Amino acid sequence: MFARSTTIMGNPEAIDPGIAYVRDEVMPSLLTIEGCVGLSMLVDRDSGQCIVTTSWQSEEAMRSSDLHLRPMRERAGELLGGQPQVEEWEIAVMHRDHRSSEGSCCRVVWMRANQTDMHRGIDIYRMSLLPRIESMPGFCSASLMVNRELQRACATTTFDTREAMEAARDEAWAIREEGVRDAGVDVLDVAEYELCLAHLRVPELV
């Protein structure tokens, strides 16, 4: 399974029109494309940052969809008031305890491998970190996406509520620090978002 993420640093006042555009126009069109599995959207209403992620059955399907989706990305950028930045990923791990609901929030961690075997990093996340992550109160789901060529990774943990996500910050920080040390990766950024569209529909990959 593969994913394409589009990040837009937009105008906070344009968040709701942006969500409506992705929900009402982008998603219905997207789901008609062969090989598309689904879509999710994260937003930070304070900063205006939005991340739209689409999931695909194969790398070929993801790549062949680009021309079709480019005008919609540009339109989303116009509505939100920011320039779309696109990244492509392999979905290495996906685990759900249960489906998300209204009010769910996500913590996203971006990492760069420091001359580390990506397979080893994925195994550390799957076998060592994930069991501890899913034991946190309010845990909903977790995923790990990687770009082997660029040696980048993106880990997302979804919680039932913002309160649960905030309450788990210290424990999540401790788990992350241990994983970073064991896997030999650098943390590039950590951010928290509202999960406003949750239709990624990726099957369990553990």
UniProtKB/TrEMBL annotation:
UniProt-recorded name of the protein: ABM domain-containing protein
InterPro entries recorded: Dimeric_a/b-barrel
Upper classification of the organism: Bacteria, Bacillati, Actinomycetota, Actinomycetes, Propionibacteriales
Top-level taxon in the UniProt lineage: Bacteria
